[in-house]
Amino acid sequence: MAVEKMESVAGLHVLITGAAQGMGLLFAKQACREGAARVVIWDIDEAKLAAAAEELRQLGGNVQAHRVDLAQQQQIEEQAAQVIESGGVDVLVNNAGVVTGSSFAEHRSAQITATMAVNALAPMYLTHALLPQLGRSGRGRVLTMASAAALVSNPNMSVYAASKAAAMSWSDSLRLELEANPNIGISTICPTYINTGMFAGAKSMLLTPMMQPEVVVDRAWRAMLAGTPLVLMPWTSKLGQFLRGALPRPAWDFVADKVIGVYHSMDEFTGRTRETTGEERLEVR
């Protein structure tokens, strides 16, 4: 059954994770501009969260900000229960993410755990907690930011790719489970590298420049409103998927390595060190 399209989030309650900066803050600004009844923002960085909340209130938004460590299941469930009790959620944006750009051998166990927890498990735990009341107003949405890395293997980002593959598969499976409900739309977005600082040092690929966050947020938001199931962006991601499926594995490896440059895109990755994670080269969106 087709999901009923939404014109905006006016009058709805919106929850956005990783909303203290970058794309999360852009999502929150869009919700405020459209007249959301309430915009709930979560982030682990308390100082930036407070600044973001003030900026959003200047836009006229009814904003509630909560420091939440998405690597902690208990915090997710406790905060989700509070949000439900205080008005519920109609639109959930699973935006928060972390990346470690190094060979798998160089990963520390804490980095593996944090990446899988934030990128893969947190969206599941949070959506699971909110799902029973989602769509109660007749309009419900879950937007999950995955990655093109979920679709194409790439050296020096194995754990990140694995976490995003898990998020993508889970999100689209959930969409299929909820197909009979026209009030709830599940959308998964898989962009290439985005110029937020999260992928500082990553190299552009053939015909695939670093994407601007405003462009990604606009496309993702429109997909969410329309209930579009899956978005790959830019168009070269679709081409890459076609070639990966059509070519023999050695031929695809050659194209990805020598022609497109996928396999070398993380060679000079630096990211930004974040004190809140306690892990070097663990970058937060």
Keywords, please?
Rossmann fold; two-stranded antiparallel sheet; 8 helices; 9 strands; Short-chain dehydrogenases/reductases family protein; Sc_DH/Rdtase_CS; oxidoreductase; NAD(P)-bd_dom_sf
Provide structural commentary.
- The chain has 285 residues and is an alpha/beta fold.
- The protein has one domain: 3-Layer(aba) Sandwich (Rossmann fold), CATH 3.40.50.
- It contains 8 helices and 9 strands.
- Helix 1 links the parallel strand 1 and strand 2.
- The protein is globular and about 55 Å long.
- The C terminus is likely disordered.
In helices, the fraction of residues equals 40-55%
Mean pLDDT: 88
Note the total helix count.
8
Secondary-structure content class: alpha/beta
Distance between the termini: 34 Å
CATH class designation: Alpha Beta
How would you name the oligomeric state of the polypeptide chains in this document?
single chain
List the helices and strands and how they pair.
Blueprint: E1 13-17, H1 22-33, E2 38-43, H2 46-58, E3 63-67, H3 73-85, E4 91-94, E5 98-100, H4 109-130, E6 140-145, H5 158-177, E7 184-191, H6 213-226, E8 230-233, H7 235-246, H8 249-260, E9 282-284
Helix pairs in contact: 1-6, 3-4, 4-5
Q: What is the structure about, briefly put?
A:
With 285 residues, the protein is α/β, with parallel strands linked by helices. It has helices at residues 22-33, 46-58, 73-85, 109-130, 158-177, 213-226, 235-246, 249-260; strands at 13-17, 38-43, 63-67, 91-94, 98-100, 140-145, 184-191, 230-233, 282-284.
